[in-house]
Amino acid sequence: MGLDIQQREHEGIVILDLKGRITLGAEASALRDKVKALNDAGSHNLVLNLAEIDYIDSTGLGALVMCATSMRKAQGNVKLLSLKRRTIELLVMTKLATVFEIFTDEQDAVNSFFPDRKIKAFDVLSFVEDMKKEE
Q: What does pLDDT average to over the chain?
C-alpha cells in the first residue's frame, strides 16, 4: 500500500490526512513533494494527521523531519496529530518526540498555531511512564 494524501483546511491551517505507509521510495517522496508545494504556495503552518498511518520507516522519519525543517525555515511549523502507539514509541526511541509537538485532538493542534488559545499537547513523559509500567 502506498501513501494517500488528502488536503483540507481548518481555520486557515492546512491539514494533511495521511493514509498508508511513509517508507523509502515513492511514499516519502510524495510527502516531501506535497509539503514543498504547500511551502512554495505560502502555506507554512501544517498539521499532519497520522491516524491512518500503518508504518513509518527511517526514511519516513527523515521525511517528517525534512518537512518540519523546511516549514520552520519559512517561519512556520509542522504539528503531528493522532499518532498510533507504534509511531509514538518510534518517535520516543529516536528522540524525535522532542522535535515535534504531538496532539491527540485536531482542534488542539489547530489552536497551537494561535498563541492566545489554550491547548492540551500530548504528554510524552506520561506515555513513556505508562510504557514502563506495562513492561
A: 94
Domain that holds residue 24: 3-134
Model confidence at 47: pLDDT above 80: yes
Distance, in Å, from the CA atom of 42 to the CA atom of 96, rounded to the nearest integer, reads 26
Q: Are 35 and 46 in contact (CB under 8 A)?
A: yes
CB 86 within 8 A of CB 60: no
Asked whether residue 44 carries a pLDDT value surpassing 70, the answer given is yes
Report the alpha-carbon distance of residue 78 to residue 102 in Å, rounded. Answer: 10
CATH number at residue 90: 3.30.750.24
> Which residues are CB-contacts of 31 (< 8 A; sequence separation ≥ 6)?
3, 5, 18, 22, 60, 63, 64, 67
Domain count, the chain: 1
Q: Minimal CA–CA distance to 88: which of 97, 100, 79?
A: 97
* Residues whose CB falls within 8 Å of the CB of residue 56, separated by 6 or more in sequence, listed in order: 21, 22, 23, 64, 87, 90
Joined grid coordinates for residue 13 = 491551517
For residue 111, the model assigns a pLDDT of 97
Mean pLDDT for the stretch of residues 37-50:
98
